[in-house]
Each structure stands twice: as structure tokens, then as C-alpha cells.
Amino acid sequence: VVAIGNALNLGGRPTVTTGILSAKDRTIQAPNLTLRNLLQTDAAINPGNSGGPLLNAAGEVVGINTAIISDAQNIGFAIPIDKIRPLIDDIRDGKATITLDTAFLGVSSTSVADTSGATLEEYSVDATTGAFVQEVQDGSPAEAADLRVGDVIVAVDDESTATSSDVVAAIREHQPGDTITITVERRGERLDLEATVGSRRDLQSSTSTTEPGG
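Above: the chain's sequence. Below: its structure in C-alpha cell form.
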């Protein structure tokens, strides 16, 4: 694959780097945001490459360069073009605009199936599916709703959530300000918690070791 971008804002012509497609369907944790279904590549992606294309050997765009792992070498990520194409078409046709004002809950979670047995035992988790809450952000809608580390989210608005990806998808169906019901299992007890979905716009200045490429 070939990654193109304005690496490090060096000026002049765009920078071109090459590599291989290392993996598909990668999930990474960015500042208060989980990025899913990403392409992983070892083609060098540096600050300034974000938004640039990732091409295959035929010159076809297969992804949009998005993020790097800052403390590792040659681990970059791109959003698959199939995920981007509908948005591109809508913007070109005047049907949509890009906005950062998307729904935000404020939890980091992992699927119960991917959580260690020791951790599940520590929090007395009996559920075999769902999203295990690993972190609740201070001041977030999740904290206001009394979500806690160790809770297992098993449904959002009565729709079952078998994995952490299901929770992310359910939250993205809502707009900031919407009220949702989150069903959790907490040490053998099932609880319904009401949360008011927040706005991601307030998170634009956040930083993390998982960095956007630009």
C-alpha cells in the first residue's frame, strides 16, 4: 500500500511512503473515543498525513489515513474507504456537512468475551455477553448516570448489546441531549440507568498517546 500526505508540514510536494496492509478490523482507543474497523499498515504515517489517501498497488484508494500509535514504530491506521464513501457522496451532493458534534457517553469498555477471567471474578460478573466497563470519565454523562467500573452494559434502550461495539453503535444512533436507558448488570443485580447523551464537541482539545496523524 501507499500512504500520501503532508508529513510534518515539510512543505513542497506531498510525502509518499509504502508498506503492507498489516491487518483489518483493528480497534484502537483515542482520546475519549474508540475507533473501530480500521485498516492497519506499516507504511509510515506521520503528523500531517491525516486525511490523506491510502492506496493499493492499482492506485485505488482503500482508506483515509487517520491515526498512529505514538510510542511504536510503523503502526498506522486508516478508515476503510467503504466507511467514508457515503459521507463523501452526501457532502458532494450538498446533503451533509462534517461535524464533531456527535454523541458521547464517556466510558471505555471491552466485550465480556475479551475480558480476563480474573477481572470478571473480581467484579462478580456472571454475564457471558455485554460490554465490561473499564473506565468512566470524570464529569461525563456516564458518571452522572452512575455507571461504574465493573458494570456490564447488556442493553441500550431495551436493545441487547452483546459486545462493546454494539454499545458504540447504539450511542451513535442518538444526538447530544437525548435521554437513553442503559441496562447494566452489577454484581448480580440488573439495573436500568438513565443517561443524557453528551456532545463530543467539547473534547476537541483532548490529547493521548494514540494520536491523530495530523
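The chain has two domains: 2-97, 103-199.
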